[in-house]
Amino acid sequence: MFSFFKSKKKPAEPETPTKDTESELIAEPEATEEAASQPEAVSEPVSEPVSEPAPEPAPEPAPELASEPAPEPEKISFASKLRLGLSRTRQNLGKQLTGLFSGGKIDEELYEELETILLTSDAGVNATTQLLEDLRKQVKREDLTDAAQLKKALQESLIKILEPLEKPLDITTHEPFVIMITGVNGVGKTTSIGKLAKYFQSQGKSVLLAAGDTFRAAAREQLIVWGERNNVTVIAPDSDPNKKSDPAAIIFDAINSAKARGIDIVLADTAGRLTTQLHLMEEIKKVKRVIGKAMSDAPHEVLLVLDANTGQNAVTQVQAFDEALDVTGLILTKLDGTAKGGVVAAIAGQYPQDPPALRFIGVGEGVDDLRPFNARAFVEAMFD
Ligand SMILES: Nc1nc2c(ncn2[C@@H]2O[C@H](COP(=O)(O)OP(=O)(O)O)[C@@H](O)[C@H]2O)c(=O)[nH]1
Ligand SMILES: [Mg+2]
Q1: What is the residue with the minimal CA distance to atom 26 of ligand 1?
Q2: Angle of helix 108-120 relative to helix 124-141, nearest 10 degrees?
């Protein structure tokens, strides 16, 4: 049974990560030409990685955020980015709905056409049924007779179905607040971590990244680049390709390092895996258990990243990852790349009793293209 906000039990297994972990602290971005030309990018103090849980946070001062470069002011508001990002969906839906709502009677034929449009927008059977039921009720209640009045009514029904997904993430409950990022390959996990790092920094929070995707060397590099860009510390595996790195140990070290440095948020990357790769699903469960050894109650958030282009398959992924990890929140990426933004409704429709928390949505590849989900803003950007 899908259940978000489950209370997290302490793991019972006597599992401890290896003491001699192979992680490497990358506190100082390497001097690049770009960095050399920007002397104001002050590097952070170097400290040793902590391999074992420290009973007390070390008295080392936390790196001052004030010494970091101020985040660039947003040139375009997220509302306009959202509109831009959803333009494919809007064009697709808009074209069809404009025809449907352009006048005439509200009859069975119209409802049937609307049903087809919603289903082909990936809204899924459950959400489509709920939407149509709600729409019929509104039509009756408000005595609507003209199809032109239906657009507003449909928007309201959609907002009603999507609002339960709107549960913003509260990262103030623990320090550090440990976020584990998971999902299949290529959905946008690492990119989203970069965007989240920037987002949290802009709110005055300090962030540490754990490069827990030890499968691909490129993943390590990708996160290090993100760390350098954002002036954020990255705990990464040893760059020696002959050494096999344990993702659990890397993240374990990262959490201890964050505790010692007084960091607010740890973002832990993990390797992508298919839900059918059972040994990899077992491995990610172990990663989660080991995180609990570094800090009780951690991870405080297990974020599943979904690609909006996967359509109905997203629902399958939610089920499988939730079963393995007790997922607490979702990130839906690449909404700009699909004309079927209706997948958001499919997720809501799948769990009418206990809807998942859609924490963030991604509408582009830029660093500012990820923001908390807002149902009303989303629906308004979805069709004019
Ligand atoms: N258009 C678009 N591309 C995205 C978005 N999020 C991620 N990507 C791209 O998706 C690709 C895979 O991302 P990556 O973070 O490496 O995926 P991972 O394997 O899950 O870590 C990259 O080319 C990203 O730039 C998004 O919201 N919109
Ligand atoms: Mg990745």
Answers
A1: 334
A2: 150
**Highest mean pLDDT: which of 49-58, 59-68, 115-124?**
115-124
Residues flanking ion ligand 2, Cβ below 5 Å: 189-190, 213, 219
| 160 and 378 Cβ atoms separated by less than 8 Å | no
What is the arithmetic mean of pLDDT over 152-159?
A: 93
Of all protein residues, whose CA lies closest to atom 13 belonging to ligand 1? 188
Structural tokens at position 176: 């550090």
Q: Shortest CA distance to 361 belongs to which of 7, 351, 381?
A: 381
Report the alpha-carbon distance of residue 270 to residue 292 in Å, rounded.
Answer: 16
Q: Which residues pair with 358 in a beta bridge?
A: 330
The three-state secondary structure class of 304 is strand
Edge-first strand listing for the sheet containing 358-362: 23-26, 233-237, 207-210, 265-268, 177-182, 301-307, 329-333, 358-362, 370-372
Contact (CB, 8 A) for 159 and 379:
yes
